[in-house]
Amino acid sequence: MAQIGEHGTQTTAALVSADGVPLESDLVVPAGARGLVIFAHGSGSSRLSPRNREVARGLNDARLATLLFDLLTPEEEVAEAATRHLRFDIAMLARRLVAVTDWASARPELASLPIGYFGASTGAGAALVAAAARPQIIRAVVSRGGRPDLARGALAQVMAPTLLIVGGNDLVVMNFNRDAAEKLRCHHTLRVVDGAGHLFEEPGALAEVCALAREWFQRYLVPAPELPARLPDGREG
Question: Which of 139, 152, 197, 226 yields a CA-CA distance of 20 to 30 A from 113?
Fold first, then answer.
C-alpha cells in the first residue's frame, strides 16, 4: 500500500516476483521524479542496509525515485548465513535484478522514468551483468565498494556510463576495480574516497559517496532539458 509523505513523496512496500520467488521491496517516488535508481545490495546485507538507505535519501532529495529490494528471500538468507553459497552466484542475482527492473518498467508511475543501478559490494557485480542484459533500459551505473570483477565477461557489454567508487584504504577491492575498469568499454570513471575503508564508515566518507552518486545520476541518468528552438533572428520559437 502506498503512503504519501512530505512534499508529495510516495512510499510503497511491495512483493516483487523475481526468478520465481517473492522479494520484498521499498519504492520511494518523490513528487516530480526525474529518474529511478534500483539498488543491488552486497552479500550479508538487505534492502534495509543503512548505507544504501542514506544514499537513497540523498537521491530522493534530488528528485530521483529509488527502489531497494532484497536479493534473497528470508529463507535463503538463513541458509546463506550458514553456507555462503549464494553471495557469489552473480548470474542468479543478476537474473533477479533484471526481473525487478522489468517489473519496475511496467509500473505506470515509473514507465516514463530512465533507470539506473546503484550496486554495493557483490551487488555491483550483479548490477553490471544486469546492465549488460538490458542495454536499452539502463542509463547509468554506480558501484560503491563494489566487486565489478565478478561481472567477468559481461563488462565489455556494459553500455551505461559507469562510476566506480572505492575507499582509499580498501586496497584489495581497489585492485579489483582497476582491473575491471580496464575491461569496460563504456564511459567510466574510478573515484577514490581518501581515507575510507570498505564500508565507508569514516566521518564524511558516505556523504562523499552520496554526492558522487547524485552527480553521476544527474549527469547521465536524467535527460538534459531540451533547449527551445530559435528562429533565424534569435527569437525563441
Answer: 152
Residue type, 75: E
Burial of 8 (0-12, 13-18, 19+ CB in 10 A): exposed
- 179 membership: H or E segment, kind and range: helix 171-183
Distance CA 28, CA 102 (A): 17
* Alpha-carbon distance values, 212 to 40, 44, 123 (Å): 17, 24, 18
Separation of alpha carbons 83 and 85, rounded Å: 5
Structure confidence by residue, pLDDT tens digits, 45-82: 778 888 999 999 999 999 999 999 988 877 777 766 65
Residue type, 193: V
pLDDT in tens, 126-169: 999 999 999 999 999 999 999 999 998 899 999 999 999 999 99
At CA 233, angle to CA 231 and CA 237, rounded to 5?
A: 25
Which has the closest alpha carbon to 106: 25, 16, 21, 3? 16
Strand-pair partners of 144: 120, 165
The C-alpha cell of 184 is what?
A: 569496460
